[in-house]
Amino acid sequence: MALALNRELLEKFQKEFEKDPKNRLAQNVCTKVDLKDLCQKRTAQLDELELSAAYLFFWDKVERSNYFLNNVVEMWRRGETVEGRLFSFLLREPLEDGGQWHMVHNLVSKHGLVPKQCYQESVTSESSRRFNQILTSKLREFAKDLYTLLAKGCSDADVQSTIEQMMETVYRIASICLGTPPTTFTWEYYDKNKAYNRLGPITPLEFYEKHVKPVFNFDDKVCLVNDTRPSNPFGDTYTVDCLGNVVGGIPTVYNNQAIEVFLQSIVDSVKANEPVWFGCEVVKRCELKRGIFDTDYFDYEALFGTTFTLGMSRADRLIYGESCMGHAMLFTGVSLDADGKPVKFRVENSWGDDTGEKGFFTMTRDWFKEFVFEVVVDKKYLPAEVIAANSKEPKVLPAWDPMGALAH
Q1: Helix 129-151 vs helix 156-178: crossing angle, to nearest 10
Q2: Which of 289, 270, 293 is nearest to 13 (CA)?
Q3: pLDDT, tens digit, for every residue of 125-141?
Q4: Which GO terms describe its biological process (predicted)?
Q5: Was domain 2-30+218-407 assigned CATH 3.40.50.300?
Q6: At a CB cut-off of 8 Å and minimum separation 6, what does 303 contact?
């Protein structure tokens, strides 16, 4: 689709925030740390620390399996049939790699964190398709067995006992594929002064509580969405039916706010050297190789003589299935104009150095306003009325709602 490229824009596009001309009266704010650094850097006095993503991956698969099996029981109690839309939706994707912010919060609160060197990546954690297929197949088999058991009128105690036996199988499969995660670990490292340090034995939960939570507290983060559909007014909260990963864990709650609240909270966060996690629709109007998110970058209208995507409003794209969140990344920098308004953002992606500028992308304000749907910021960067909205009883959206798509 090279013919649709806006060549003039490509030549003009500036991707390096710190090299913008000074005479433009624009202020460029960049943070050099990522989310993992933010969690640990100040406490351990390290030049660099990488937390184990594989550790959270393991527990997400185990916990999400348990959550799914308990949802099967919930479907029976609601009178849902296997052929019904809700149960069919749950069976279609019982175990995907996607997730919401609250799911990470649940895992960290229950299982803690470990440094990467204490639980390394494996072939399976880096390429999970076959593992997901195997475990998904087993979970569907278990769903059938549970429904058969429930149809016989078994007691709640018998049902829970059966789920516990099923979870032993799930844990065994995950351990064989990923390796059994540590219950305690000893961490050896060199600090900024090249001095040797040894921490432990310590549990992953103790590691989080003592060494991460004081500088990065998940409890202080607020999940904002920008849902412009007429049925979902700003200032209210929303959740998605059957969306979660830990039974009895923190529910996924979205605080619906105007896009201006998003923009200001991101600017304030990045200026304070705090990256911002966000969810967006990643494939529209973007050039992945060069790392550019820009609504004007591709001129499809000139090529085909008709509008694409942006011919519909943001709300209509959500309603008619043209937009949904599909990917999560980090805002690590923002470029401001002379009035202090953001004009573009620096984005850290997780797709490796072969995309963008060594994994970093540039996003324009216009693209942001069209395709960014969710951000997570510390409550200290939000107005009191936005924080107060979080205490409202959330409206339950259906399981297939686009606001829950990031988890699938």
Answers
A1: 170
A2: 293
A3: 888 889 999 999 999 99
A4: homocysteine catabolic process; proteolysis; response to toxic substance
A5: no
A6: 3, 4
